[in-house]
Design goal:
The N terminus is likely disordered. This protein is mainly beta and 449 residues long. It is globular. Helices cover 4% and strands 48% of the residues.
């Protein structure tokens, strides 16, 4: 249950509808991350919690929502027990397009977590750089981790390693918006929630950007049994740089029905005297096709598809240090993985991890003509312009070498359904997924891709 504690409206439009829905949804996100049974919020390649508020008015000018709120929340899981937390958001923080988000929670079994993030700050009004940072710390008690052979494609859920671990990540963001496509004149077009498609190349349409994310991350197990053997590096920290080249040619951030999204991510850790150097790449490609209305039943039907591929090219490179062979591999917590809230959704976060990974996801998304939510209790407090029904399926596997033929064999699968709706500018999704090992119910914000 989420209950508003304190709220103050800063703009005329925010007086009409309670704006704590934004924080409610992000609080649900923290609950969902922990329901997954794994500290997924710390995955090196994830986007964390980012809030964009841009919208075009009738004259075609960008404007920004301004308000702030603080909301307490509570939930229960087997691993964490009963947990209490607090989340807060500031939209228009110091600059109209910028935002701040913070949250923390504490469970009665010892798990705690804190997270704070700022996004979309500019050094000057004509700058094409968007800057931000995040700080995350946690202590997970009696949590299932999948380490060593327990994370391979042939492993079983019974191989999980139950342990206690400190988790931390400190990350900065510097995103440069190229003067191409929709951002030719105004770089802040990158923060608009909806944009028209004006072509099929980066110089004609969409937002093209390069982003640098230097970060420090660690995971330290404590008061736990000896760790299982693993082929990953045994270091408990990384100092790395994540570089992301992105072309976003979608017509909507929240409910895309046309266009594509391309993202290449390269992560490098230069290493040190007591830490191996390594690098990995990830490629994510999404497409969306609007197949029109479905008679009197559906206002909109969309087919969405995502393909994801990742590898650690330095995996087999090694050197001799004081008579020991050291391989240039990341620790398991810094490696891209399958399972959780975005890929292979019936499995817990971090369930599968190895040198290389491949996954496919396909969704059939429909918007019913019938939309009763705005008249339901609680929902009628908020602006709920649409809801969406979704059927989805995921395929994926990991392997100890980069071999596309092997990666496309003996794949794990998930399938399920979801209900998604937009609440005060935030997409909330509740989905049920089934797979070979178990089923999973998650509540989350934002589309999976």
């Amino acid at each position: 249950m989420l209950t508003p504690l304190y709220r103050r409206a800063l703009s005329r439009t925010s007086i009409c509808h309670p704006r704590q829905a934004v924080v409610n949804a992000t609080a649900w996100l923290f609950s969902a991350l922990l329901w997954a049974g794994y500290p997924a919020v710390a995955c090196a390649s994830d986007d964390g919690i980012k809030i964009n508020t841009g919208g075009y008015d009738d004259e075609g000018e960008l404007n920004w929502a301004k308000d702030y709120a603080v909301v307490p929340f509570a939930f229960y899981t087997d691993n964490i027990g009963f947990a209490l937390g607090m989340a807060g958001v500031v939209k228009g923080a110091f600059q109209p397009q910028a935002s701040l988000f913070g949250a923390g929670l504490k469970g009665n079994k010892g798990t705690w977590l804190t997270y704070i993030r700022g996004d979309n700050f500019r050094l000057s009004n004509d700058s094409r750089w968007l800057l931000g940072a995040e700080i995350y710390n946690a202590d997970f008690q009696h949590t299932d981790f999948y380490l060593g052979e327990a994370a391979s494609n042939d492993s079983s859920a019974l191989d999980a390693f139950n342990a206690n671990a400190y988790d931390a990540r400190y990350r900065m963001f510097a995103r440069y918006i190229f003067p191409l496509g929709s951002a030719t004149a105004n770089p802040l077009a990158a923060l608009a929630l909806e944009r028209p498609l004006t072509g099929s190349t980066p110089w004609q349409s969409g937002i093209t950007s390069i982003e640098f994310r230097p970060y420090y991350q660690n995971r330290r197990f404590h008061d736990s049994p000896p760790l299982p053997d693993t082929e990953f590096a045994d270091t408990d920290e990384v100092w790395a740089l994540e570089t992301r080249l992105e072309w976003d040619n979608l017509n909507s951030e929240h409910n895309p029905s046309q266009g594509s999204h391309s993202l290449l991510t390269v992560t490098t850790d230069p290493g040190s005297s007591d830490r191996e150097s390594w690098w990995q790449w990830e490629l994510s490609q999404s497409w969306f096709w609007d197949i029109g209305p479905g008679g009197d039943w559906f206002e909109q039907q969309v087919i969405a598809f995502n393909a994801y591929l990742s590898d650690v090219p330095s995996w087999d490179q090694s050197e001799q240090v004081q008579g020991q062979t050291r391989y240039h591999r990341p620790p398991e917590f810094a490696r891209a993985s399958l399972g959780g809230l975005f890929r292979l959704r019936s499995y817990p976060g971090g369930r599968f991890s190895d040198r290389s990974a491949l996954s496919y996801s396909m969704e059939y998304r429909v918007m019913p003509e019938w939309q009763p939510l705005s008249g339901w209790p609680v929902f009628d407090w908020y602006d709920v312009p649409w809801w969406q029904w979704v059927l989805f399926t995921d395929l994926g596997r990991v392997a100890d070498e980069f071999d596309l033929a092997e990666l496309n064999q003996d794949m794990r699968w998930s399938a399920g359904g979801a209900v998604r709706f937009q609440v005060e500018g935030v997409v909330v999704r509740a989905e049920m997924a089934w797979g070979e090992e178990e089923s999973s119910f998650n509540v989350m914000v934002n589309q999976p891709f």
